[in-house]
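Two entries, shown back to back:
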Amino acid sequence: MVGVAEAAVVVKPHAYEIDGEAFEGLLVYDDAVTTPRPGLVMVPNWLGVTERSAEKAARAAGEKYVVFMADLYGKAVRPSNPDEAKAAATSVRSDRALMRKRAQAAVDAFRSQQEVALDTSKMAAIGFCFGGGAVLELARSGADLDAFVSFHGNLDTPNPDDAKQIKAPVLVLHGADDPAVPKEQVDGFVAEMQATDADWQMVSYGNAVHSFTDPYAKVPGRNEYNPLVAKRAFEAMNDLLDEVFTAQ
């Protein structure tokens, strides 16, 4: 899949393997910039690698970053509807070791690619919905990145003590009215973080539900785009990334 999400934004497939199995993510970047830029590994929502997720990756990339959209399902698995997406996401979420392994493999594939100039000393991970939860699991695995950002992601984990392995700042951007991430899950996450020395932030946005950054989310009260909250959330992401990348 090669396309233009905005003027000068390039979307290129990038193939890699995990234990002999084929995976294919997307490199998303503004080709008007030729100098090495920081890299963001992006784990998309439960639909996986799609053109709509590429549009979101382009928004995150802007002129500042190169984004690599991770493939957590394998090249042969491309959900075409919510039922297929739920099955694929559940399969990965039910095996957190597998989720972490595939997320880390995407990081490694991104670091080693030679198609676009990348500043490998400045790298972070971001994720949306299912992908937000995956990014938090990557953080809990002790991954060597500069920041982890979850947009309306799942917050639960089967091994809360693993949070003690977090090595970089964590930012959770949450819809305060998100029915997919209930208060009990939020409280559990806060307690998990408070039991560590991790540098973490959680922003709860009023009048926001699940998928608030997704322009295609149109299920009122459950999955619904909120352009103002989306703008604020991306600004919060950029503020953190400016901080961690400038500190180096």
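entry 2 starts here
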Amino acid sequence: MARVTLQVLDGADRGALFDEIETPLTIGREEGNTIQLNDERISRFHVKIQEDQGKVVLTDLESTNGTRVNGLDTQLRILQVGDLIAVGRSTLLYGTREEIAERVNVLRSLGERAPSDSMVEKATGPLKPRSESNEDDSVAVDLHWGSDSLGFPGTLHLPGPPDMPEGLTPAQAAQVAEMLEYFHGRTRALLHGAVAPDGDQPVAISRERWHGLIDLQAQIAQYLRRIGGSE
């Protein structure tokens, strides 16, 4: 089973560190949770974190006030190092200082948008520059990006599409393909009605197509809810 590290950044338990906790684990306000937090806005059993097929997965346990990851309401989510998990009035950081520093360097090497020094250091504490690190260290912790660095607040998640699920049966793969084909077809039909004026002006669509986009978003939300097991 995977082991995870969570640090409480905000809330009544601010500063608490849960290091190398074995999964599966639950977070909530009652005894019996792996991590018990003193927060009246957290449900008795609020979220579950488990390992599945090499991924660390967070599941909201139908909590009263919901769960947010990097500011977005979440029912089911694959966690990435540096993710911020908000439950009730508490915010938890996923990952160790070294894991986060390593991910920062990966982002920099790929030329992607990177988190600012202030965001990372606020979450993890000051990290030694590369020049002060031991040569034998396996993790480089240089976070000095320079004045032209673009901030990437709230998350170290690469700003790109998620990976495709692996290990699907033929029937499951066909179902996923059918869902994506449906959304692709509807999106294409809606975009074909857009009017793009010259210059850097907003693209306009008819009110009918606008409502079509809202309906499409509603259907995606319903799929997400069903996949998350809330029905």
